[in-house]
Amino acid sequence: MLAKLISLSGERPPVAELASEVALSPSQAHLSLKRLERARLLDAHTGRPLLHAVEEFLVHAVKYVFPASRGEVTRGMPTGYAAPPLNAHIAAGADLPPVWPHPNGKVRGVTLDPVHRTATAVAEKDPTVYKVLALLDALRDGRARERALAERELLALVRERLRG
To answer: Fewest CB atoms within 10 Å of the CB: 52, 92, 145, 158?
Structure first.
């Protein structure tokens, strides 16, 4: 939900519309927004993400709240260092890249469970959400260089989108 709000530059459409965009029921979307407000990541009056809190959460807390879990080799959507924007900075090595399992996936790699079951569906439709989630995966599962690049790229993206 937070990645989608970043994609929308902090603007909040009606809950039913937002729910549809993130592949959740309206009640799940409402609960997610309320949870973000309780965590002080959204302003309770405007519904806009709070930039400094969001930055701190994404860079320092996501890896603990959503620990990375790798699985078997499969086909899927590239994530982490293998997805934009990091794939422009990091050359693929001999290791298989991390992927989110997907039936129409074109890349063979090692499964990295996404932060939410609907992540691949939302990322397919929204390139900004895809970038945010892939960068978060680099922070959750990457090596030191990947994490440093991901942090820099993520903060730049978040600041650009939420400062307008």
So the answer is: 52
